[in-house]
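Dear colleague,

Thank you for sharing your sequence with our group. We've completed the structure prediction you requested, and as agreed, I am returning the results in plain text so they can be pasted directly into your records. Please verify that the sequence below matches your submission; if there's any discrepancy, let me know and we will rerun it promptly.
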Amino acid sequence: MVIKVKVEFLGGLDIISSSVREHKCSIPLEEGEATMKDLIEYVTKNIITDAKDIPVFIEDDTVRPGILVLINDTDWELEGMEDYVLESGDVFTFTSTLHGG
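Please find the predicted structure tokens below.
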């Protein structure tokens, strides 16, 4: 069974995925068992195109500070962060809040 979700990268963060902002993903795990930790691992292994860009996204095994994470348009802190249980149809948005200038 797979969990079908959408992953979006905004605020310049799409640079880590060859400038592709939207990804439709099929996570090869059972619904009700997979968590946000599994999605983060999936992103680092399957979406980030260059291993040297992983530190742009991950720090200490979680999404690095400076990246706003939304789960279905709700701040992930309100949804349990890494412990959120994935459901088919979920939309995960990662937006960089750090901008050069």
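Summary note from our side: The CA atoms of residues 67 and 101 lie 17 Å apart.

Kind regards,
the structure core
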